[in-house]
């Protein structure tokens, strides 16, 4: 009797094979056999302009004057941004900047302090 992995969504042990996929009868989740063998989700690595790896809570500095969309103000070079959060998407840094408020930045325009 072959041992199939538990469902990655609900951890059910009653999974079964359906062609090239594995299926969970309890939550109806389907995934490929290759994904079942490699069940650890890989987190996207975010790097700054110099190639340093960024993490949640880091402090970064803006390396280029950035126009703020929907405003006539400019985020000046050298602005220090504390306690960043990494998010998925095109603008991969979510932060709060003193004097500007909540903002999303691209990692290519910052460097780690």
Summed up:
Residues 3-32 form the Protein YjdM N-terminal domain. This protein is mostly beta strands.
How would you portray this structure in words?
The chain has one helix at residues 33-37; strands at residues 16-18, 21-23, 30-32, 60-62, 66-67, 74-75, 80-81, 85-86, 93-97, 101-105, 110-112. It is mainly beta. The chain folds into two domains: 1-39, N-terminal domain of TfIIb; 59-112, SH3 type barrels. A hairpin with a 6-residue loop joins strand 8 and strand 9 (93-97). The model has no long low-confidence stretch (mean pLDDT 87).
List strands and helices in order, with pairings.
Elements: E1 16-18, E2 21-23, E3 30-32, H1 33-37, E4 60-62, E5 66-67, E6 74-75, E7 80-81, E8 85-86, E9 93-97, E10 101-105, E11 110-112
Protein name: Protein YjdM
Organism: Brevibacillus centrosporus
Domain Protein YjdM N-terminal: 3-32
Percent of residues in helices comes to under 10%
Terminal CA distance:
55 Å
Strand content: 25-35%
The CATH architecture name of the largest domain reads Roll
Strand-and-helix sequence, N→C?
EEEHEEEEEEEE
Our count of helices gives 1
CATH H-level superfamily of the largest domain? SH3 Domains
Instruction: Report the mean per-residue pLDDT as an integer.
Output: 87
* Largest sheet: spatial strand order: 1-2-3
Radius of gyration based on Cα positions? 21 Å
Return the CATH topology of the largest domain: SH3 type barrels
Low-confidence stretches are: none
Number of domains: 2
> What structural class is derived from the secondary structure elements?
mainly beta
General form? elongated
Total beta-strand segments: 11
In the CATH hierarchy, what is the class of the largest domain?
Mainly Beta
Let me know the largest β-sheet: 3 strands, antiparallel
